[in-house]
């Protein structure tokens, strides 16, 4: 799956002429995020591709004016204390398992 082509195709053919808050755009956006987050990341190249696709989605479909807005927010994993890492692990685990 070439996610960048798929995102751009939808944006130029359908999404650009639609309201970003319309149900059809929201459903397409959600399905695309779901498919990207379910990709098995076996290589660093896959991880970078998925990250770039998510950034493209955010930039085109959320109305955020700053490019790559989320890249510089928060702390990096290296900067987290052991307690913060455990808290993040538990939060992610709960989100994935639906707890």
Q: How would you sum up this structure in a few lines?
A:
The protein is an all-alpha fold. The chain contains 4 helices and no strands. The radius of gyration is 16 Å and the shape is elongated.
Task: Note down, in words, how this protein is organized.
With 99 residues, the chain is an all-alpha fold. It has one domain. 61% of the residues lie in helices and 0% in strands. The protein contains 4 helices and no strands. The chain has helices spanning 3-13, 23-37, 44-61, 82-97. The longest helix is centred in the middle third of the chain and has 18 residues, at 44-61. The model has no long low-confidence stretch (mean pLDDT 78).
Q: Quick check: average pLDDT?
A: 78
Number of strands: 0
Strand content: under 5%
Q: Tally the helices: what do you get?
A: 4
| Amount of helix | 55-70%
- Which structural class should the secondary elements be placed in? mainly alpha
Oligomeric status: single chain
Query: Major sheet: size, sense and barrel closure?
Result: none
Keywords, please?
61% helix; 99 residues; mainly alpha
What layout of secondary structure does this protein have?
Elements: H1 3-13, H2 23-37, H3 44-61, H4 82-97
Helix pairs in contact: 1-3, 2-3
């Amino acid at each position: 799956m070439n996610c960048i082509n798929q995102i751009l195709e939808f944006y130029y053919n359908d999404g650009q002429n639609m309201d970003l808050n319309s149900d059809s755009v929201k459903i397409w956006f959600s399905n695309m995020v779901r498919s990207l987050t379910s990709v098995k990341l076996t290589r660093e190249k896959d991880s970078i591709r998925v990250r770039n696709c998510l950034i493209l989605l955010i930039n085109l479909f959320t109305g955020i004016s700053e490019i790559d807005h989320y890249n510089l927010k928060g702390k990096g994993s290296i900067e987290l204390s052991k307690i913060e890492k455990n808290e993040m692990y538990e939060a992610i685990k709960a989100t994935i398992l639906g707890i």
